[in-house]
Design brief:
This protein is of the alpha+beta class. The protein has two domains: 95 residues, Phosphorylase Kinase, domain 1 (2-Layer Sandwich); 180 residues, Transferase(Phosphotransferase), domain 1. It is built from nine helices and nine strands. A hairpin with a 4-residue loop joins β8 and β9. α2 runs antiparallel to α4, α3 runs antiparallel to α6 and α3 packs antiparallel against α9. The N terminus and C terminus are likely disordered.
Length: 305
């Protein structure tokens, strides 16, 4: 069974956002785009008329001090990031009983739909997308920002505009504040590295482990570790090596099989330490693909050096 939608996490227990009034601070809310992560996301209109996306969540009365300040502090991480493949954070704050994060509006969808058998992307697209995610992570890591919750739902893609963007930087650590009061794991357990699940020190290698899980899932339509309970999942991640990805995709190049295994190594020091190195390996794999193999959709995501 797949674990990510069903195992308990901070997302499951976090108070869901009641719909705010049509006006939130200086932003006019237009429509709900869905719920996920820490709250609800709306398409909204900024005072200058441009479309933006606003993520909100409802603050409980007894959380107003701790979580409101944590939200603003961690959301500000996103405003330090400036990379074409990272969603830009434009504003953040608290209004009445809601905290909110204002981001650039991104057309398209997240990668979750492409982790299902029957709707997997061609190999070339998978390599192109993950290469760009690796480079974006490298840019964040260079200024000591760790994402902490890389997963398909946090990667947005739009073929016609050649868009690949990571979203929700800084928000996973806000979940840590919630977890400290509840004992519930913050983040999405199926994508978390052994050291993150163990609440040990994490760094760039932890995000790259999560990228390895995403790559495995995009290639196979399944997770490297699947379990029916959180306890079983924790045991698998801690003790059992991930199966080789070619067990489910025997057509994959040996170098790609090795890269996925390297990303999913149990010990952080034995994983790639730099997203640029991972991107370089993915670029080499792209260059080695037979001409015309899995060309991807017209105008779709392309490799960026």
């Amino acid at each position: 069974m797949r674990t990510s939608p069903h195992l308990p996490s901070a997302d499951d227990a976090w108070p869901r956002s009641a719909a705010p009034a049509q006006q939130l601070a200086q932003y006019r809310l237009l429509r709900s785009l869905g719920r996920g992560g820490l709250g609800e996301v709306f398409e909204a209109q900024a005072p200058d008329g441009r479309a933006v996306a606003i993520k909100t969540f409802l603050l409980r009365d007894d959380d107003q001090g701790l979580l409101a300040s944590a939200f603003v502090r961690e959301a500000n991480l996103g405003q330090r990031l400036n990379h074409p493949d990272i969603v830009k954070v434009l504003d953040s704050g608290c209004h009445q009983d809601h905290a909110y994060l204002v981001m650039e509006f991104v057309a398209g969808h997240d990668l979750r739909r492409h982790t299902r058998a029957g709707n997997l992307l061609p190999l070339q697209q998978v390599l192109q997308i993950t290469q760009r995610v690796a480079l974006a992570l490298a840019a964040a890591h260079a200024i000591r920002v760790i994402h902490r919750d890389i997963k398909p739902g946090n990667v947005l893609v739009h073929g016609p505009s050649d868009t690949v963007k990571i979203t929700d930087f800084g928000l996973a650590r806000l979940g840590d504040a919630f977890r400290s009061r509840t004992g519930i794991i913050a983040g999405t357990p199926a994508y978390m590295s052994p050291e993150q699940l163990a609440e040990a020190t994490i760094g760039p290698a932890s995000d790259l482990y999560a990228l390895g899980v995403v790559l495995f899932e995009l290639l196979t339509g399944r997770l490297p570790h699947e379990a029916t309970s959180l306890g079983e999942l924790l045991l698998q991640v801690a003790r059992h090596p991930a199966p080789p990805v070619d067990r489910f995709r025997p057509d994959l190049p040996a170098a790609l099989v090795d890269l996925v295994a390297h990303l999913l190594h149990k010990k952080a020091p034995h994983r790639p330490q730099d997203g640029i190195a991972v991107a370089d390996q993915l670029a080499a794999l792209l260059a080695d693909l037979p001409q015309g193999l899995n060309p991807g959709w017209p105008g779709g995501p392309k490799s960026r050096g």
